[in-house]
Amino acid sequence: MKKPVKYLAAVFLAGAVMLSGCSKPEPPAQTGNIRVVTVNFPPCDFVKQITGGEVVPEMLLKGGQDAHTFEPTAKDIIKINEADIFIYTGGESDEWVDTIAESIDSGVKIVRMTDLVELIEEDHDDDHDDDDHDRGEETEYDEHIWTSPKNAITISKGIADVLCEVSPENAQKYMDGLAAYTAELTALSDELQAAADTLGRPLIFGDRFPFKYMAHDYGIEYYAAFSGCSTDTEPSAAKMTELIEKARETGSKVIYYIEFSTGKVADAIAEAVGAETRLMHSCHTLSDADLAAGETYVSIMRKNIEALRS
Predict the structure, then answer these.
(1) Are 190 and 217 in contact (CB under 8 A)?
(2) Quick check: helix, strand or coil at residue 281?
(3) Closest by alpha carbon to 199, among 214, 219, 217?
(4) Sheet harboring 254-258: ordered strands across?
(5) 8-117+143-191: what fold?
(6) What's the CATH number for 196-309?
(7) CATH fold match for the domains 8-117+143-191 and 196-309
(8) Whole-model pTM?
């Protein structure tokens, strides 16, 4: 279903988000008769699971690449234009999609995942964020919608619908794949709820907290150094004091950090209260090693559940 690149002139007008120069498009790096391009890992894995591996999307984020600082190259934009389906989050980290929207071929089916679920407002890190809100700044929503398996089920359904629209001859196969994957995600959701029900204390994150949808849907209380999309790396002295005091007050034995973090803040809190540190993975971006090992959304979330049980 590959189609010729259109609107190349418009693509090059999107220079604000492209690196200079453009070479010949690389051959498709995926299998299947549908070309799918995703920005990050969760929808890439959802497509593979729904199609039984028949369609393997091309992911723009490379192993370990930070979505919050990603900017597309000219090759990336050409890949999007050559796709049948383009899937992105719709949050702060991929606002660049709005910049290139007019240059995307009208034949590309676009899935904006934040349109498929109910959004939750982002946390505010400091007093200056509250001041911005008071001045009428636009509301920001947490973009890590897939951290709740309940949302993953909804998003997968939306993706499956578009896959069937693009390839109606495979619709039954994809619907069967969706049913099987939904059953797997439902079991995952039940496991997560069971772990959340036995917590008995809030989570202490010495890091960003990209699990707001998980916390909301499964009744998990938490305290964190930064919000999910924060660019800060050092919490204020007041925030550190708050987290240490909360950890002591609740008897927390584990302080959490997220993937690709230095873990320094979590280490400092853990040392102050005599706790250990554990990783929780947001699934936003995987390392090359995780990708090579065949990690999936479900396998990573099950590791998160084990971390909660600790």
Answers:
(1) no
(2) coil
(3) 219
(4) 222-227, 203-209, 254-258, 276-280
(5) Rossmann fold (3.40.50)
(6) 3.40.50.1980
(7) yes
(8) 0.87
